[in-house]
Amino acid sequence: MKKNPSSIRARATLGALFFMFSILLVVFAFSTTGSPRKNATIQAPIVALPGAPPDNGAKLGFENFEGPGGLTNVTTSSQGQPVNTVEYLAHDAGEPSIGVNWSTNVTAFQSDLQTLFVTFDDTCNLTHTKDTWVNRPAKTSQGVDQDPIGFTDRLTGRTFAAELTLTSPTCKTSWTDDGGQTWIPSQGAGPGQGIDHETIGGGPFHAPVPPRPPGTIYPNAVYYCVQLPHASCALSVDGGNTFGPGVEIDPVADAHCIGIHGHVKVGPDGTVYVPTENCDGMGSVIVSENNGLPNSWVIQHVPGTSSPGDIIDAQVATDNNGKLYFIMANGDGTPVVATADQHGTNWANVYNIGAPVGVVTTGYPYVTAADANRAAVAFLGSTKAGAASSHGFTGVWHLYVAATFDGGATWTTTDATPNDPLQRGCIWTQGGADICRNLLDFIGLTVDNQGRIEVGYVDGCPDGDCAQAPVNPDGSSAVNGNSYAARGAIARQSSGRRLVAAFDPTSSTSAPGMPLVTERRVGRTIHLGWSEADTGNSPITSYQILRATASGAETLLTTVPSTQTRFDDLTATDITKTYYYKVVAVNAVGLSCPNNEVAAPYVGNGCTGLIVQKTPPGHPEQTGGAGVAPASLAIEYIAVAEPASLPGNFMFQMKVTSLASGLPASSRWRIVWDSYAANGQQFYVGMRTDTSSVPTFEYGTIATAVVGLVIGVPTETKIANALAGSNANPDGTINIIVPKSVFGNPQPGDLLGAVNGRTFTGDTPANDTLERSNLLVDHTFVKAQRDNGHPAATYTVLGNAACEGGIVPDGAVSRKTHDSITPPFEVKLPLSGNLGIECRIRQGLYSIHH
């Protein structure tokens, strides 16, 4: 993965701080607010580009698959815990790399310290999920790292996993030819080959082929390109085992190009391309027709483009005939595409690809191609205008995919995540440790051996609380807050023409794609939501909702109109049971595969507490594994409540295993969440003990300062003591009561994101405000400011509603529940004392059915 010097994810422990200190002395001269941007004021005039002409053929459709969230062993955790711990699969997936081995059709998904291999089953076999994710990391994927990156050469099948280390060998790299079963450590990029923003790519050698070691059988060139101290690329002639010296691609010392570059790509004739957002103020591609050797790199500007002035990569790809496809976020925020023959010397088809879908603000574009004249681009887009990095930006973001089947003359564009935002509010593109930098800096895009488009992206707004929150007609969020998650996801093509023509569907229509389902359970109500299904180019006629109390046993509960993507189930009232749901889309061709089961366990209510983060069974830190926490500091769950008896207040709750043996001295119990209302972007509430084990309860803020290139140091600042009634109990329950007004006064429907727990002990006056002192004793699954839990630890503000016996009364509907329903809608509402009577509400018209 690649980003500017301050982009490393603010997660090192205090121990790592000492370990890295000498390295920081070397690199601290670089800016802590972004990559060096020489001549950063250079920008070509912003020209309003024409919208892409529409392709009139069948539209593309997509199904979305998220990392399943099962626990996976990791050699070391980037949270900072001891070795041999666990993390959720694909749940710290910022900046994913994605590629497909065309020999096996297995997808490689690289993120953080996990290298995931994903297979898809299109037979709709209900004995297992349609997508299977397996973590097979290289042994070199460990320790404090920067910018993990992956690359799969689709023709040879070789997959690389790499991350920077700042020290020799600069980049820890391994490769596998068998889907991660066997990894071969390599030289990396070689000593001194740069320290930031690396990329690995490969393809055929350009003639003449340079000398190669005797006995080398790997057919292709492999390139390692890097950002600092100057943009440069190194060539490997032995399959990535060793690399030659780095060669500046814009001499001398980035004379023309600033900012950061995109991923290196190799054309079918061996020409090498490095895209960049700003060469002389324009989007450009730096080209070598001599295997990246010195003095072979030439800058080719893309006319009509203007640098956006942030750190969003431009990207490039070539089809099998050598045509070049380019995409970037333009200076006006729109996504721009262009094509060229002759290695970038004759650009054409320069279009605003966002115009057909109303996208005016762009993030993280990418491009891929296969057969001649067939290519696809993907980008994050918002229909709300504004500065994407502004904390006041209120737009919601979706993933869009556009494809061309005529070399860029016309395009068809699809919202690949309809009715399912992947981020609310800003996407930070300026480096550093901002809370809305949870997605980090780019996405990935590839194609499988049957021409299906696959997008590797990050869902920063997963699960029911965030995904189901309402959106205004202008494309802005109707509530404040976000999940600030980093959930790995793949959007996979399910209908429409392919990028490999031989696999184009024989019919222009097909059965619907499978919707992605979310749930949010509050007391005796379960709120369901789902993404609009891929229509298969035949209109959706209805959705079937299936329910059961045992996994796999779902039967039809109700059918709703095609325009409805929300349903509140008020008949799932047994709090001792977990309810299971599926949603099936129906069109004239058939039904979607019912392989999208979601579980809705009971997690409490808004009066006595809704559990938002719970330690999963089998966590080694809680069951005798390395770093096992003592009972007084081992977190079992985090909950939030708004009792009617405490109007205007929150009650945060941490449950540790037990406090029956007393409180340890000099310790802290912290609940933390993300908020722009906080001075430092995070609030905390919690308990602390002094040297005599006397507890006090307090609240305050946390700020994470980025130091040099690597380390974020979070420091807390107390605001005041918590309110009377805050307490700790022998059963391990800690309650902290605090006024909402000091936390930005969130209103019903607003979101508290990345709610997490942390415990510390052994505090001294020197470190008692460092949020990672003593390596943490225990923590829930939030790294720095990003939520990596499963489900996402997001809390929807309900308001201090009246409760009866700890249960929200029948008919009590929060602002979020009401606003999140898209008319026409249906709510099954049991009426007290009138068994068998339902009140059905349709578009505001009420009728009673006996």
Structure, explained:
The protein is an all-beta fold and 850 residues long. 3% of the residues lie in helices and 38% in strands. It is built from three helices and 56 strands. The strands form 13 sheets. Strands 43, 44, 45, 46, 49, 50 and 53 form a seven-stranded antiparallel β-sheet that branches. A six-stranded mixed β-sheet has the order 32-33-36-54-55-56. A six-stranded antiparallel β-sheet has the order 39-40-41-42-48-47, with no helix packed on it. A hairpin with a 6-residue loop joins strand 8 (146-152) and strand 9 (159-164). The longest helix has 14 residues, at 14-27. The N and C termini lie far apart (60 Å). Residues 1-41 and 804-850 have low confidence and may be disordered.
Distance between the termini: 60 Å
Low-confidence stretches at least 5 residues in length (pLDDT < 50)?
1-41, 804-850
Helix content: under 10%
Q: Quick one: overall form?
A: globular
- Give the DSSP E fraction (strand runs of 2 or more residues): 35-45%
Topology, number of strands: 56
Helix count equals 3
Largest sheet: 7 strands, antiparallel
What Rg is obtained from the alpha carbons, in whole angstroms?
A: 26 Å
Structural class per helix/strand content?
Answer: mainly beta
User: How confident is the prediction overall: mean pLDDT?
Assistant: 86
